[in-house]
Design goal:
single chain, alpha/beta, Rossmann fold, seven-stranded mixed beta sheet, 6 helices, 7 strands, 25% helix, globular
């Protein structure tokens, strides 16, 4: 796939998800339960109590009573209950260090490329540990390509040590490549 978004509102997620999750779109975590389980395991291993999950979509990863979900779509958040806040990853409405962990799965693809550093900076601002999951360019993803290595370097510029864990699973048209970044403030 090229770098063109698969939907005209791709970089305007408030419009894209205004009425919920569009039927023609899906996510790697929704399509691939073993990958979702792997990401959940990585999050669980951190042992964070207060977790912010940005852009949980239809299949949130974080679990527990102290998880707060943030999304630009009220309709998506409605299904997640009261521990949900409408907001944007580029301007998180929380104090510095408010969470033990900030989690963003398959979200940064909806942030225009020129604004991704700001989104990473916001994730790093609100928590000393960050987990980012992202399908890779050329990995069979439907979304515009984002290099997980580039995202990891962006997190490192925020003063974090980032470990990139490549994930490769069989797909209908060849291997699907994804990246899981687990980072901690130095």
């Amino acid at each position: 796939m090229g770098t063109e978004p698969p939907h005209p509102d791709w970089f305007r997620p408030r419009a894209l998800y205004r009425r919920g999750y569009p039927a023609e779109l899906t996510s790697a975590l929704q399509l691939l339960p073993p990958v979702r389980a792997l990401v959940q395991r990585a999050v669980d291993e951190i042992g964070a109590r207060y977790v912010l999950e940005v852009g949980p979509g239809r299949c949130p990863v974080a679990r527990g009573p102290d998880v707060l979900y943030l999304d630009v779509s009220e309709s998506i958040l409605a299904a997640l209950g009261t521990r949900a806040v409408v907001g944007d990853v580029r301007a998180l409405p929380f104090a510095d260090g408010m969470f033990d962990l900030a989690l963003a799965c398959d979200v940064l693809t909806h942030v225009p490329p020129a604004e991704r550093e700001r989104a990473l900076s916001e994730l790093c601002r609100v928590a000393p540990r960050v987990v980012v999951f992202q399908p890779e360019p050329g990995g069979g993803a439907l979304a515009p390509p984002i290099s997980a290595a580039r995202l990891a370097r962006g997190i490192e510029r925020c003063g974090f040590e980032a470990a990139l864990r490549p994930i490769v699973v069989p797909g209908p048209r060849g291997p699907l490549r994804m990246g899981l970044i687990v980072a901690e403030r130095r």
